[in-house]
Amino acid sequence: MKKRVFSGIQPTGNIHIGNYLGAIRHWVAAQGEFENIFSIVDLHAITIPQNPKILKTKIREVSALLFAAGIDPKQSAVFVQSNVTAHTEMAWILNCFIPMGWMSGMTQFKEKSEKQKKEVSVGLFDYPALMAADILLYKTDFVPVGHDQKQHVELTRDVAQRFNSIYGDTFKFPEPIINEIGARIMGLDNPIKKMSKSEALPIHAINLLDSADDIRSKIMKATTDSDTEIVFDKNRKGIYNLLVIYEQFTSFKRADIETRFEGKGYADFKKELADVIIEGLRHLQSRYLELIIDPSYVDSLLKDGASRVRPIAEKTLNEVKTKIGIG
Ligand code: AMP
Ligand code: TRP
């Protein structure tokens, strides 16, 4: 029996190379080894106000990007979260087993609520309960995510443990899989901030669908320092981040990269980095264009994904309802 992997991605903003290097690429690479379920988490997206038309388009765009990046619909079920209603039901139930104090400690909530100028919704506070539901419904073994989601997976384990200790063995304890290198790609404008979909400044992130010209111009403008040496030094955050991106796209060894750029300037390095990214995204971009001209095909893959996972989710939900004496 293959171990099961579950992960999710929000259909908001522009998917960037941080999402790709920290998450999507690992999902693709490990597909053969596991039974995979990937969700486009639209219910998580609405924890922050969204424009309905844009949201609908983004759901398709992100799905097509996953398939374009190499997610194979035969090996992996990809579905839209709101199409499997067990997620919301399970989230409600888990809510009743999560102490307020656990939620208050969530770093991502603190960050997101500070950023939001308008009212912060209860949904945003409760985001981790829905994420726990996503994971626990499928008796997931592994959750491959970027570093920022580790705390949410830990909360998922805690609530599973709490539930199991009251009602007996029900949920499996999921383990996060975090590939440390690439798990935290930083913003190009500000290398002390994680590259994020919601930053307004265009040079902040390289998006997967950026044109070659945009990629070049963003990389050339990326923040570095007044030093000259091109070496992997964690304290020199700008150049370090760019070198990690180079390393991730080429899979070259660090020592070889440093030798390659010995005596060269930042501009030379940046030119080559831009080429490497453009080349690294070329296949994905052309596959995306092929897929997106036929939205009904993408929709049919999503529908099929939902029908494959729904029975698994409903089975767990029913088991839980019976145990707690509802339904
Ligand atoms: P999100 O953008 O929040 O939908 O995240 C989708 C996936 O990408 C999650 O697994 C995140 O942990 C991962 N991710 C998001 N931003 C970054 C980043 N800057 N570096 C690495 N991984 C990231
Ligand atoms: N919260 C995750 C993010 O923003 C997305 C997500 C939702 C997820 N449900 C999940 C990731 C379940 C892993 C498992 O990146």
Question: How does this structure look, described?
Answer:
- There is one protein chain.
- This protein is mainly alpha-helical and 327 residues long.
- The protein contains 13 helices and 5 strands.
- A 3-stranded parallel β-sheet has the order 1-2-3. A two-stranded parallel ribbon has the order 4-5.
- Helix 3 packs across helix 12 and helix 9 (212-221) packs antiparallel against helix 12 (266-292).
- It is globular.
- The protein binds adenosine monophosphate and tryptophan.
- Tryptophan binds next to strand 1 and helix 7.
Secondary-structure blueprint:
Blueprint: E1 4-9, H1 17-29, E2 35-40, H2 42-45, H3 52-68, E3 76-80, H4 86-95, H5 100-104, H6 107-115, H7 122-137, E4 142-144, H8 150-167, E5 175-177, H9 212-221, H10 237-250, H11 254-260, H12 266-292, H13 295-324
Parallel strand pairs: 1-2, 2-3, 4-5
